[in-house]
Write a structure and sequence with these properties.
497 residues; Beta-lactamase; 3 domains
Length: 497
């Protein structure tokens, strides 16, 4: 039996059957006690003061029996925030397989042997800090290989083919306040350094604006309008604002005073050009002469107006190939650390899998691919609205019921069940769940994805404790309490399962 608003409203609206409030309470108590499931946990949760004015959706399914343990407005579409990454990563696994790897080819142009092509496949891991080892290994190995392969004394140009996803690297549904910050970095055919940089300040002079020191990595031509102020709380409230491919940035908010160095993160304006210039540096260090460095962007944009979109290069001899870690490791980074950058590349990779034309919108195609895939697996997508792959758009929506159906499928049916389950952080132990349920009996027994943006707090995943195997989704939108209060209410609810 399910608990819903409908049940409670029957008792309230038909007062003639229950003339006394005490009788109403008693009947409700008997109803919940007779269900055989911990419905009182749900009752307490829905009635929590922090959720008084919130939109709430809950779905809990027993994965052994397939039966619904409890639900509350489970079909309601709610904003998921980063919980949307469950859909993106599950779709990627189903479509590409756990061992899929991105490849970045370095080749000579077949029609111009003095032009070196760097051909991107959408790999988000190039020079990423997310994996162990030297993040510059792509540049080091490429320079080493080309030094051994190319004849000495000849000058080469670099042409970075970063057009696979086009150049609309951000969702049109993201808010302007996110633009320019690292967590809203664009996704393109070539990425580098997680498409982000650190902007360093000195804040020891409390009577002036924080003094800009440098960026890491250094980005030529990048300028900042500094409107930062200082605080004495030690909190980081500094943000960088700007649009893709613009080298003008505004810095606003406040950062801690009294620091010789303090940094905030922004997004690299043109990752393809950044990769090309960085590779140029490494090749020059290897005594390879490099002249012009350019990307495919200018040629791509010009192609919009031509009836025949001729490719401005032709790949010849492949000099070396860089491969990414396998997809199962990439999706673990997405889910454990809630990596927006990686998730956006995944959804566009899916789009380009179905729509090969680089002038087709890769994001739109990826969303369509994901919805078709789950619909074809028998999970209705009527509640699902995707405007990105990472959950940053407040216009994203999905129901708790859809999430638990997907979770049950990935646990019981998918060939990629182990990789998907292993990609989720353990509550109280790691990643974005390190401080969630840490002092409870379910520490390490809940694996889930969290999601939080303004007014949104969601969790969806698995609770596995002996014979108890549940898939759950708890979604809260527009709550009036504090975020710690809401998280605490969710923790109490899960402990009652």
């Amino acid at each position: 039996m399910r608990f819903s608003k409908g049940i409670s409203s029957i008792f309230v609206q038909n007062k003639r059957y229950f003339p006394m409030q005490k009788n109403l309470i008693f009947v409700v108590f008997l109803l919940f006690a007779s269900l055989g499931y911990p419905q009182t946990a749900l009752q307490k949760f829905i009635g929590h003061p922090a959720l008084k004015h919130a939109s709430v959706g809950v779905s809990v399914v027993d994965m052994t029996t397939g039966k619904t343990v409890m639900e509350y407005d489970a079909e309601k579409s709610l904003t998921p925030a980063s919980v949307l990454k469950l859909i993106t990563t599950a779709t990627a696994l189903e479509a590409l397989g756990e061992n899929y790897r991105y490849k970045t080819d370095v080749a000579l142009d077949a029609e111009d042997s003095s032009r070196i092509l760097i051909i991107g496949s959408g790999d988000p891991t190039l020079a990423s800090e997310a994996f162990h080892g030297n993040p510059n290994i792509f540049f080091i190995t490429t320079a080493h290989t080309l030094k051994k392969t190319l004849p000495p004394g000849k000058e080469y140009s670099l042409y970075v083919v970063d057009n696979l996803f086009g150049y609309n690297g951000i969702s049109p549904e993201w808010t302007w306040i996110d633009m320019g910050n690292y967590y809203a970095a664009g996704a393109y055919g070539i990425s580098v350094f997680d498409n982000s940089y650190r902007l360093f300040f000195n804040t020891t002079d409390r009577d002036s604006c924080p003094r800009i020191l440098r960026t890491e990595p250094q980005i030529k031509g990048l300028t900042f309008q500094n409107e930062l102020t200082l605080n004495n709380t030690g909190s980081d409230n500094g943000y960088i604002y700007g649009i893709p491919f613009s080298y003008e940035r505004a810095v606003r908010g406040n950062i801690p005073a009294g620091r010789t160095e303090f940094s905030i993160k922004g997004d690299i304006p043109d990752p393809g050009l950044m990769l090309g210039e960085t590779l140029s540096y490494y090749l020059k260090q290897a005594d390879i002469k490099i002249g012009k460095v350019e990307t495919a962007r200018r040629d791509y944009l010009a192609g919009y107006c031509t009836p025949e979109k001729r490719q401005p290069y032709r790949a010849g001899q492949v000099l070396c190939t860089h491969v990414s870690p396998p997809l199962k490791e990439i999706i673990r980074e997405v889910n454990v650390e809630s990596n927006n950058h990686y998730a956006e590349h995944l959804i566009r990779t899916l789009g380009r899998k179905s729509k090969k034309d680089i002038y087709e919108d890769a994001l739109e195609a990826g969303v369509t691919y994901a919805m078709d895939l789950w619909n074809n697996k028998g999970i209705p997508v009527t509640s699902l609205r995707m405007h990105d792959g990472n959950g940053l758009s407040p216009q994203n929506a999905v129901s708790p019921s859809f999430l638990t159906q997907l979770l049950v499928y990935m646990y019981n049916t998918s060939e990629n069940a182990s990789s998907f389950f292993s990609s989720l952080p353990k509550a109280g132990r790691e990643g974005t769940l390190k401080n969630f349920m840490g002092n409870t009996r379910y520490s390490g027994k809940v694996v889930a994805k969290s999601g939080s943006i303004g007014g949104v707090q969601c969790y969806a995943g698995y609770l596995v404790d002996g014979n108890k195997k549940y898939a759950f989704a708890v979604m809260i939108n527009k709550f009036n309490g504090t975020r710690p209060q809401v998280r605490g209410a969710i923790e109490q609810f899960l402990q009652g399962l």
